[in-house]
Specification:
CATH topology of chain A: Thiol Ester Dehydrase, Chain A
CATH superfamily of chain A: Hotdog Thioesterase
Structural class of chain A: alpha+beta
Radius of gyration of chain A: 15 Å
Strand order of the largest sheet of chain A: 1-3-4-5-2
Helix content of chain A: 10-25%
Number of strands of chain A: 5
Oligomer: homotetramer
CATH architecture of chain A: Roll
CATH class of chain A: Alpha Beta
Low-confidence stretches of chain A: none
Largest sheet of chain A: 5 strands, antiparallel
Largest interface: A-D, 19 and 19 residues
Number of helices of chain A: 2
Mean pLDDT of chain A: 94
Shape of chain A: elongated
Chain lengths: 130, 130, 130, 130
């Protein structure tokens, strides 16, 4: 399963080199993970209100080709791995047929103290699995 | 009384035109207001934990001259007015003898519902007055 | 004439208070001005390539009501004034029937040295006038 | 050899969870790489003016422990590898004895078309090597 969303690059997201700043892609990927969680029905705000969270433990990101103001980007999120307390997503940002950025994001489900913890059964949804 | 702090422009704060993005100056001014509150002994975190807040109601900002990566900026914060529930600060960003930005910031003390409210006596410090 | 665009608040645009950071609204307004310029046919990139620019000289912004993650915002841009080298826009950010932010933005047309200069006739489009 | 710089977390760099947003650490690391290049005497602006650039090809970042407003952070940059056209840096962000973030950053020297190219001899400084 693949989850897609799109966005258009805004001028203020670009730096002195005229292209999207490296850090901004992490914002884009965070946005896309939020859209993915919504589309699989994961009750993120309920989890946060309950003191839980999805902690990002690691991001490995390859910058393949720069993006520019007004570019229409398509972000594809795929589940690569899923364990009892954590998982890995693959996220790719495309512009037309170009790959702009390719990333692997490892997350962990954490309790109110930030310690990794098993996802409660009712939130362990099919969409979290590959 | 004037309250001063300094900072150096970082590359990622600059936009495609090579100078500090207009919105970033509001971050700088927020930082300087935080330094001002610390220097007058205002217990900001205690107020926030108590459900109060300093809400920014209005900012009028004049962009006088652009700032560039590595520029050393000096931010001067002055109290212009102070009423029972609100006040106005003047904030100026300097680079050497140049004025980069001049701003007037109106704040209000608010309760947990965001409604303007009288500042409790123990927090109504001399440094809040002109 | 009014020019409208919309956007949805992203989580990373919100600060520790849970609402959109004051500086981020300036990004939103910049985005909306870009959309306005496109809709009136102003050749912004041609102007920039030709060494010209639209410099923002002043922004006065009133924060009326906070915005939160996922809020759908509507930004309305209106021309208030237009002179030979500068002008003033009114920009309002709405969420449903609430006003989130109200702003007045003064711009100047500048040459390659950043000095205010008369807009060349072919770019002095009807949409720049009230 | 290790290159160090320090910074203090500003409120607006923190997100709704009260800690530094994941993307902001990439800004911090970019800042620290700039300080490192200055300290080894690399003529970065001359290189950029000459049409060259240091392109970040890959970042792998491990989030070890969250950082909060006012935290004093120390960023250590080390050279791990150096080839003819590219290299790898190790960057660690510390708060006291805690590790906040650990990263590996792969860069490539590129020409005006963005193609990896051999670093001109006069810029191939000792500080670029492990």
């Amino acid at each position: 399963m693949e989850y897609e969303c799109t966005l258009r690059v805004r001028t203020y997201e670009c730096d002195v080199y005229g292209h999207v700043n490296n850090a901004v892609y992490l914002n884009y990927l965070e946005y896309a993970r939020g859209e993915y969680l919504k589309s699989i029905g994961f009750p993120y705000l309920t989890a946060v209100d309950g003191g839980y969270g999805l902690y990002v433990a690691r991001i490995a990101i390859d910058y393949k080709s720069p993006a520019f103001p007004e570019d229409e980007l398509r972000i594809v999120t795929r589940v690569l791995k899923k364990g009892a307390v954590s998982g890995t997503l693959g996220q790719t940002i495309h512009r037309g047929s170009d790959v702009v950025v390719q990333a692997e994001v490892t997350w962990a489900f954490v309790d109110s103290k930030g310690a990794p913890t098993r996802i409660p059964k009712e939130w362990d949804l099919p969409g979290l699995k590959p």
